[in-house]
Design brief:
The complex is a heterodimer of chains A (390) and B (229).
Chain A (H helix, E strand, L loop, with lengths): L4 E3 L12 E5 L3 E2 L5 E2 L2 E8 L9 E5 L25 E2 L4 E2 L4 E5 L31 H15 L4 E7 L1 H12 L4 E7 L7 H16 L16 H15 L2 H7 L19 H16 L2 H13 L2 H4 L4 H4 L6 E7 L7 H13 L3 E7 L13 H18 L6
Helix pairs in contact in A: 1-2, 3-4, 3-7, 4-6
Chain B lengths: L1 H18 L10 H8 L6 E5 L5 H10 L2 E6 L2 H9 L3 E4 L14 E7 L8 H11 E9 L4 H10 L23 H10 L3 E8 L5 E2 L6 H6 L2 E7 L5
Parallel strand pairs in B: 1-2, 1-4, 2-3, 4-5
Antiparallel strand pairs in B: 5-8, 6-7, 6-8
Classes of the chains: A alpha/beta (390), B alpha/beta (229).
């Protein structure tokens, strides 16, 4: 392998996150044409790699996720974002599988992103960071797996933007993917979703503390803009029914409306809380770059305009999952993937889970999701000849 | 034409009778058992309306078939996928178009045709995406159904047609004669046919004859497109 990779401690000076970091020295050719590097990839692992190296599962995180799928977040102390899914005896059984969860390229939890120092200038990259794509993220992940000596993944799994990475993996490295599970995803970002992202980005850029992206060098932080971006996005992750169930028109610690613009309603208070806690753990420029990567994602366009072309000749086993109340990545998006896979005569399962939890359902306790995935992975593990846990 | 159809039915009926031993097919429904007998080991099979995956599971276990399924009900799909079967949620009306021509050796549509919105289009799709299609359906020309309608003047109920008229999923019921006429009309060849009596026992009658239409509670047809050979 020509790419020179060696592990080393995390490069970011002011933070030392738990977990592993890989320094990739050889530049990576990005979709935008830039040879980018050296750069770091931060990742977590769970479980143990078997002697055949055949039980590895790559877990791809969503827009604001990170590598801490199943351990406490080092900044917030909250449980891992997929704690319900990952662990001994859980669906992603760490007694049976070896899980790798990397932070995406452009992220802000240890993998190189716009908040890191550009070696050329000695300043944070900010907007001089190259625009990255989902395919670039996946290329970087492939380097990590090459480094770990894992030529063939048992499974690639992820929700939302994670699902985009799963699809990209299946299309770009079909022989490295035994099973692919894109949950609540799409093969391209819809106009509506691009529009929502643009609202978030404009909110960040409209914050005077954003300073044209140079806020880190100026010791400022566009917390208001980033919080608004998060609040707007958060609404899209829920369903009307879930909002109604959780909050209705209930008032927040008061008996009557105050005829002002305080957070009278519980739903307002909730959103404000979501916004204000988000800014403590996420970098505003990272948010710009990663939302852009999602906007640019269009798997069919990468393969001559037909989605089936992306999966031609694939031998991977697919399990596509959507949720009834997800209006951000609604079921028809998943069905389109299913149809493309059918057109490619691929081995595909497709399940729509009935829930009112909206897009967020993939992160929540959804027994039917767990059952389906458990069965699918078990079936795949049998085909792959993976030993059952004792 | 009629003669060749009859001889095919006869020879199949005989084969089915001799190869079937009690319990050989596990818990499979009788019509599914007969369908399973018609499928070569190792084939690529699409089961449309696969329910809880009974046939697919059987074919995977006993015949090493590379099986896929389509099922409308959420619970059916989840049961199938939960058992490691490759099944998508969908229906025959909407989800067949994406498959390429000849994608499967065999496409199975058992007890589902009468519940589709466009049966004619579905049959055309079946023989397009499969080299062969196996279709089974309840025969509305069965004498008991005719008699019940005649005597009671109400929509007939039977174990094949268990729903009252106001909540039945069966919106396009047909007789064996209707089905054969449709196949003729759209140029689909009937390779074999098996008719089942009310105990699910196969017997051999020319599907084009009026006796088959009167005495069969169900029909199973093996179809080929005009370009099928």
């Amino acid at each position: 392998m020509s790419t020179l990779i060696s592990p080393r401690p995390r490069s970011r000076s002011d933070q030392d996150w738990p977990g592993y970091t890989l320094l990739v020295r050889t530049p990576l050719r990005l979709d935008c044409g830039i040879d980018f590097g050296p750069f770091t990839i931060a990742y977590q692992t769970y479980g143990r790699l078997n002697p055949d190296r055949s039980n590895a599962i790559l877990v791809c995180h969503a827009l604001t996720g990170d590598q801490y799928a199943a351990d406490p977040h080092p900044l917030t102390g909250k449980p891992g974002w997929w704690e319900t899914m990952v662990g001994p005896g859980r669906v992603l059984d760490t007694e049976r599988y070896f899980l790798i969860c990397p932070n995406v390229l452009g992220g802000c939890m240890g993998t190189t992103g716009p908040q890191d120092i550009d070696p050329a200038s000695g300043q944070p990259w900010a907007l001089s960071f190259p625009v990255i794509t989902i395919r670039d993220m996946v290329r970087a992940q492939k380097l990590l797996l090459d480094h770990l000596g894992i030529g063939s993944l048992f499974c690639v799994i992820g929700g939302s933007m994670g699902a985009m990475q799963v699809l990209e993996w299946a299309a770009s490295y079909p022989d490295s993917v035994f099973a692919a599970v894109p949950i609540a995803g799409a093969a391209r970002h819809s106009a509506q979703n691009i529009a929502f992202h643009e609202v978030g980005r404009q909110a960040i850029m409209a914050d005077p503390d954003w300073c044209g992206g140079l806020y880190l060098s100026l010791d400022r932080k566009p917390v208001r803009g980033l919080a608004v971006a998060r609040m707007a996005a958060h609404i899209t992750y829920l369903s009307e029914a879930a909002l109604h169930r959780k909050f209705g028109r209930n008032l927040q610690d008061r008996l009557a409306v105050t005829y002002g613009f305080d957070a009278d309603f519980q739903v307002e208070s909730y959103l404000r809380h979501q916004g204000s806690t988000f800014v403590d753990r996420f970098d505003a420029n990272s948010y710009l770059y990663i939302t852009r990567a999602m906007d640019y994602f269009d798997l069919a366009a990468e393969h001559g305009g037909t989605l089936a072309g992306a999966f031609e000749g694939t031998r991977s086993r697919f399990c596509i999952i959507s949720f009834t109340s997800d209006w951000l990545f609604p079921t028809p998006e998943s069905r389109q993937i299913v149809h493309a896979l059918n057109a490619a005569a691929a081995n595909v399962s497709f399940v729509e889970i009935a829930t009112d939890n909206g897009h967020d359902a993939f992160l929540l306790h959804e027994p039917e999701l767990f059952e389906t995935l458990h069965g699918f992975l078990n079936g795949c593990a049998e085909h792959r000849g993976l030993a059952r846990p004792k | 034409m009629a003669a060749s159809g009859e001889s095919a039915a006869l020879s199949f009926g005989a084969a089915a009778q001799t190869t079937m031993t009690p319990g050989a097919a596990g818990e499979l429904r009788q019509d599914l058992r007969l369908i399973a007998e018609m499928i070569e080991p190792g084939s690529r099979v699409l089961d449309i309306g696969c329910g809880d995956g009974a046939l697919l599971g059987y074919l995977a276990r006993r015949k090493s078939v590379d099986g896929r399924g389509i099922e409308l009900s959420q619970s059916g799909v989840n049961a199938c996928v939960g058992h490691g079967l490759s099944v998508i949620q969908g229906d025959a009306d909407r989800d067949l178009e994406a498959y390429p021509d000849g994608a499967f050796d065999v496409v199975v549509l058992s007890q589902t045709l009468q519940a589709t919105h466009r049966p004619r289009r579905v049959v055309e799709e079946l023989v397009r995406i499969g080299r062969r299609a196996i279709v089974s359906f309840p025969n509305f020309g069965f004498w008991r159904i005719r008699l019940r309608l005649l005597l009671t003047g109400r929509m007939p109920l039977s174990h094949c047609l268990a729903h009252p008229w106001y909540e039945t999923p069966n919106i396009h019921l047909c007789t064996i004669r209707d089905f054969v006429a449709l196949c003729d009309e759209i140029g689909v060849r009937v390779d074999r046919s098996v008719t089942l009596d009310r105990h699910g026992q196969p017997f051999s009658l020319d599907p084009r004859g009026s006796l088959a239409n009167l005495l069969s509670e169900q029909g199973i047809f093996v179809l080929c497109g005009s370009a099928g050979l």
